[in-house]
């Protein structure tokens, strides 16, 4: 893989919280649980069984001793979800946010375990899988998924059942397989701000031993904000995706599934709003920072100081191939999963706020000349070209023995990845900050005056045009777990995983300790053994409990944005988690009520923290092992059918994180300036990507069928507590507590000559909340930015299938 270099340069406290906490305490009864969004047939009087593959084989949710949340096809349709990020509001203790500068890069956190650093040298903390295939990067993970059947979210360490180890949990995206008989479906959605989505799927009849399913998806959306300078939309996107699935069943005991999937997005990345400009920098940097302050606001703006340059649109392209072979040999099943995936992303010009400069205010680098008046200058702008290829191979052995008293799974896993990124940057600093340590004659020349005082009131545009890095990553693992039924009601499960990771990284940049541009390479390995044990007891046919003790690790990573050789060649060490979980799975009231829950405690050591370092070398990040922390939490979910046709759901999550040790670079949150290294005693924020309270309430009523169809009305409210995006610099980029109200009215089973037809009207964010999606405080650069979620929107769906 090679890069094509380019010259283009980028509280409120809700009343709902009190009510939902009170309701959850009434429901908790000493345990907590996994969310289920089981789909119940129209006017059913009993909850349907939910099938999951959390343990790599199909099993009932209530029989699976894991804290797992499931969203089925009908639920995904009801909330309009067609990518992984759109389910997080409805699942306790999980956050998925799109990051600034891209509409395709995700930051994923489960139970406060997160790895949102976009550098390709840092492994995700949450494993993302599509049909059993692990996706090595959360960057580029916001792609459209065609034929999505359900989403399973497993909370807590995963490793004895999954190919790749993950400390936070796993998200399984399960798609539909060929049905083997002719079928067709067409879904259309129209919404505000030019939103359009179309999905077409065709199932072919069987041709001998072969069956196929072919699907195509198209979506587009105008921007949510305007350009202050041109009036054009900012943040618009369009996306195309396709999927072809082929199934071969030459015998009853053998199945081969091949899937090709492709997704291509074109997106305008100019959506970051200047939320704060530091007075300290206004005083030192003069007119440029005054101009930035004039177009910034802590509240959501309808027009941003950004220009809509169509040639700077970003792209994100994903192509995948997966081959799954399965042999059923009676009590033993052998499975092979082979995959290849390729991701390319080009963010040709991302800016975090620009202004037309006044005369004699901004110096053009160390040239001593001023940028002409009226020229647009960005506070920070970057170009990014990213590529990643991965190959995975997994072999699994699953079976039963001793009259089904023993149930086991074992596997070996191989992962190879190659990734590169080229990320030149341009940014502005107060001149006295940029040149303050230069010799006096240099200051006099650069600031066109006599002595350092001449730099005060002026700014300088600098850049890091030579910034590129690459990573070769290999991982192998052997894992397994076995469940033994000691009695008819009591099971014990033991498992273990042995992992080894090799990484070789290279970085090309202007190293400050070398005083020149150079390329530095380094390599290292990490090895880890992770055991687990679960005890499960079936108290009655409808109530069981489980206790799990498990561990997991995330391999270390290189500081891809290092500015010195020493900081690059000292990678962060691996981090480890030991977790304990007590769970309840129950169905009550003749299967008209389902109460599931989990209480958990996690001990986190050598925690990896991305320490943002913005300065005269640009915006850089240093991944460090900051220290130790613990997390305590609850997840609880209640599903009720109180009367025929009425479905009620309530879920709640509580999460409390405490740092025992936190040693890192210390930054002043007011000035943004570094204050050296040390241990933080009075910790300002522990809820980074981890709101203390999350909850959702859902009510759905299915009316009696009529001659024109069956009407279904649904309303839901979701809540998330305040949270931050940085452990220290969180004064100007945190998210206040907020709730969202959504509603949908669907007419199903509309009489047509053939097949099924339904139409739906929906509204999202009905109270028009202005909610921050993600934020970055650029510290010493003098400003903070935030992106925002979509405002109130209405739309209509139509779906036909036969």
Task: Give me a quick take on this structure.
The protein is mainly beta.
How is this structure best described in words?
The protein is 6% helix and 55% strand. The chain is mainly beta. The strands form 7 sheets. The chain has a 22-stranded antiparallel β-barrel. Strand 31 (490-511) and strand 32 (516-540) form a beta hairpin. The radius of gyration is 27 Å and the shape is globular. Residues 1-41 have low confidence and may be disordered.
Classify the secondary structure makeup into a structural class: mainly beta
**Cα-atom Rg, whole angstroms?**
27 Å
Main sheet, how many strands, which sense, barrel? Answer: 22 strands, antiparallel, barrel
The shape, in one word, is globular
> Helix tally?
7
Number of strands: 45
Which stretches of 5+ consecutive residues score pLDDT under 50? 1-41
Terminal CA distance = 44 Å
**Average pLDDT score:** 86
How much of the sequence lies in strands comes to over 45%
Helix content bin: under 10%
What is the secondary structure topology, with strand pairs?
Elements: H1 15-28, E1 36-37, E2 51-52, E3 59-60, E4 68-72, H2 73-79, E5 94-98, E6 106-110, E7 113-114, E8 126-130, E9 133-135, E10 148-155, E11 169-175, E12 183-191, E13 195-203, E14 210-221, E15 225-227, E16 233-234, E17 237-251, E18 254-267, E19 273-277, H3 279-285, H4 287-294, E20 303-304, E21 314-328, E22 332-351, E23 354-356, E24 362-364, E25 376-378, E26 380-401, E27 406-422, E28 425-430, H5 431-435, H6 440-446, E29 459-464, E30 468-485, E31 490-511, E32 516-540, E33 543-554, H7 565-568, E34 575-588, E35 593-615, E36 618-643, E37 646-667, E38 674-679, E39 693-702, E40 710-720, E41 738-748, E42 756-764, E43 772-777, E44 783-788, E45 793-801
Parallel strand pairs: 1-4, 8-11, 15-20, 24-29
Antiparallel strand pairs: 2-3, 4-10, 5-6, 6-7, 8-9, 10-11, 12-13, 12-45, 13-14, 14-17, 15-16, 17-18, 18-21, 19-44, 21-22, 22-26, 23-25, 26-27, 26-28, 27-30, 28-29, 30-31, 31-32, 32-33, 33-34, 34-35, 35-36, 36-37, 37-38, 37-39, 39-40, 40-41, 41-42, 42-45, 43-44
Helix pairs in contact: 3-4
């Amino acid at each position: 893989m090679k890069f094509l270099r380019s010259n283009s340069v980028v509280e409120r406290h809700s009343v709902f919280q009190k009510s939902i906490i009170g309701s959850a305490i009434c429901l908790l009864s000493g345990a907590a649980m996994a969310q289920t969004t089981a789909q119940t047939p129209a006017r059913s009087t009993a909850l349907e069984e939910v099938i999951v593959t959390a343990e790599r084989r199909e099993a009932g949710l209530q029989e699976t001793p894991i804290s797992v949340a499931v969203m089925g096809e009908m639920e995904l349709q009801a909330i309009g979800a067609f990518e992984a990020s759109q389910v997080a509001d409805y699942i306790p203790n999980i956050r998925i946010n799109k990051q600034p500068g891209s509409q395709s890069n995700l930051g994923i956190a489960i139970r406060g375990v997160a790895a949102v650093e976009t550098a390709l040298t840092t492994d995700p903390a949450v494993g993302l899988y599509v049909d059993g295939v692990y996706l090595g990067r959360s960057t580029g993970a916001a792609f459209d998924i065609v034929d999505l059947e359900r989403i399973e979210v497993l909370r807590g360490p995963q490793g004895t059942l999954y190919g790749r180890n993950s400390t936070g949990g796993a998200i399984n995206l399960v798609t539909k397989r060929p049905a083997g008989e002719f079928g067709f479906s067409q879904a259309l959605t129209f919404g505000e701000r030019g939103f359009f989505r179309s999905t077409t799927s065709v199932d072919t009849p069987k041709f001998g031993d072969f069956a196929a399913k072919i699907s195509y998806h198209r979506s587009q959306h105008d921007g949510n904000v305007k350009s202050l300078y041109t009036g054009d939309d900012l943040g618009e996107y369009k996306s195309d995706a396709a999927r072809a699935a082929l199934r071969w069943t030459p015998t009853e005991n053998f199945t081969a599934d091949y899937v090709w999937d492709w997704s291509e997005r074109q997106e305008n990345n100019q959506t970051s709003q200047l939320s704060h400009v530091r007075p300290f920098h206004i005083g030192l940097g003069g007119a440029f920072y005054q101009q930035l302050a004039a177009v910034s606001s802590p509240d959501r703006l309808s027009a941003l100081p950004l220009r809509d340059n169509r040639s700077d649109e970003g792209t994100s392209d994903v192509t995948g191939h997966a081959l799954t072979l399965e042999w059923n040999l009676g009590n033993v099943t052998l499975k092979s999963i082979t995959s290849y995936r390729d991701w390319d992303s080009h963010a040709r010009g991302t800016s975090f706020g620009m202004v037309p400069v006044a005369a004699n205010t901004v110096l053009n680098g160390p040239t001593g000349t001023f940028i002409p008046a009226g020229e647009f200058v960005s506070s920070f702008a970057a170009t990014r070209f990213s590529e990643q290829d991965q190959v995975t191979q997994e072999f699994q052995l699953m079976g039963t023995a001793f009259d089904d008293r023993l149930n086991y799974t074992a596997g070996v896993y191989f992962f190879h990845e190659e990734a590169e990124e080229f990320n030149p940057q341009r940014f502005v600093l107060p001149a006295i900050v940029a040149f303050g340590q230069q010799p006096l004659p240099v200051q006099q020349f650069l600031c066109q005056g006599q002595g350092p005082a001449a730099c005060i009131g002026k700014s300088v545009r600098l850049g890091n045009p030579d910034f590129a890095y690459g990573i070769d990553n290999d991982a192998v693992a052997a894992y397994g777990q076995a469940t033994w039924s000691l009695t008819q009601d009591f099971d014990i499960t033991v498992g273990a995983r042995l992992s080894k990771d090799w990484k070789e990284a290279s970085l090309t940049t202007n190293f400050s300790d070398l005083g020149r541009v150079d390329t530095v390479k380094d390599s290292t390995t990490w090895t880890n053994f992770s055991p687990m044990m679960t005890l499960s007891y079936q108290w009655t046919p409808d109530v069981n409990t489980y206790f799990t003790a498990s561990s997991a690790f995330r391999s270390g990573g290189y500081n891809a944005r290092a500015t010195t050789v020493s900081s690059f060649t000292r990678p962060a060490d691996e981090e480890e988690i030991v977790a304990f979980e007590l769970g309840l799975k129950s169905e009550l009231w003749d299967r008209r009520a389902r109460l599931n829950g989990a209480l958990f405690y996690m001990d986190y050591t050598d925690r990896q923290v991305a320490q943002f370092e913005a300065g005269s070398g640009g915006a850089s990040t240093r991944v460090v092992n900051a220290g130790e922390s613990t997390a305590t939490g609850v997840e609880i979910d209640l599903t009720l059918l109180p009367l025929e046709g009425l479905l009620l759901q309530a879920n709640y999550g509580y999460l409390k994180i405490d740092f025992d040790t936190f040693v890192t670079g210390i930054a002043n949150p007011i000035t943004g300036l570094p204050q050296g290294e040390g241990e933080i005693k009075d910790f300002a924020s522990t809820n980074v990507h981890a709101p203390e309270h999350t909850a959702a309430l859902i009510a759905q009523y299915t009316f009696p069928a009529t001659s024109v169809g069956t009407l279904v009305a649904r309303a839901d409210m979701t809540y998330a507590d305040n949270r931050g995006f940085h452990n220290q610099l969180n004064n100007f980029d945190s998210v206040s507590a907020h709730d969202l109200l959504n509603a949908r009215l669907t007419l199903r089973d509309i009489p047509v000559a053939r097949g099924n037809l339904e139409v739906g009207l929906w509204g999202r964010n009905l109270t028009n909340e202005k909610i921050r999606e993600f934020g970055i405080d650029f510290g010493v650069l003098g400003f903070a930015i935030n992106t925002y979620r979509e405002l109130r929107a209405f739309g209509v769906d139509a779906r036909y299938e036969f």
